């Protein structure tokens, strides 16, 4: 068994989940930032990812498959209308007293945050299991 592939798969998963956490944090941080107009309001972002294809090749004279894992396809900016709040005294208020705020759904962002954290933890657990198996294999191989 190629332990490097197991490490690479877990590492790619952790990298994607870290990006997902970073974008969720940015969305939450900008949730209450008012904008001068609807066009200038912050737009929430999402990570689009997919399974990385397996690549087969020659390695050390035998056919082997390189690690799959996951890869980021894109970071999408959601095309949602800003949340308009009636605040006539606000410096950014328009003629009707409406102020544009980002259309960030707090509950959805918290769910996304928890999912990313659990996925990151699962990748760490998988990497630790592979590390333990590799170390145990070396221990078994060393006992003659």
From TrEMBL:
Key words of the record: Bacterial flagellum, Cell projection, Cilium, Flagellum
Annotated Flagellar basal-body/hook protein C-terminal domain residues: 95-139
GO terms of biological process kind: bacterial-type flagellum-dependent cell motility
InterPro entries per UniProt: Flg_bb/hook_C_dom, FlgC
Cell compartments where the protein resides: Bacterial flagellum basal body
One Gene Ontology term, aspect cellular component: bacterial-type flagellum basal body, rod
Presence of keyword Kinase: no
Pfam families according to UniProt: Flg_bbr_C (PF06429)
Family per record: Belongs to the flagella basal body rod proteins family.
NCBIfam families registered for this protein in UniProt: FlgC
Oligomer and partners: The basal body constitutes a major portion of the flagellar organelle and consists of four rings (L,P,S, and M) mounted on a central rod. The rod consists of about 26 subunits of FlgG in the distal portion, and FlgB, FlgC and FlgF are thought to build up the proximal portion of the rod with about 6 subunits each.
Name under which the protein is recorded: Flagellar basal-body rod protein FlgC
Organism listed in the record: Duganella radicis
């Amino acid at each position: 068994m190629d332990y490097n592939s197991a490490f690479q798969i877990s590492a790619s998963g952790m990298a994607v989940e870290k990006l997902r956490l970073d974008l969720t944090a940015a969305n939450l941080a900008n949730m209450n930032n008012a904008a001068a107009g609807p066009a200038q309001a912050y737009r929430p972002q999402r990570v689009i990812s997919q399974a990385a294809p397996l690549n087969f090749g020659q390695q050390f004279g035998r056919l082997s498959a390189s690690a799959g894992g996951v890869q980021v396809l894109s970071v999408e900016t959601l095309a949602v209308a800003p949340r308009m709040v009636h605040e006539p005294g606000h410096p950014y208020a328009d003629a009707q007293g409406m102020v544009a705020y980002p259309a960030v759904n707090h509950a959805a962002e918290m769910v996304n945050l928890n999912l990313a954290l659990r996925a990151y933890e699962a990748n760490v657990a998988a990497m630790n299991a592979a590390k333990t198996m590799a170390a145990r294999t070396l221990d078994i191989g060393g006992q003659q």
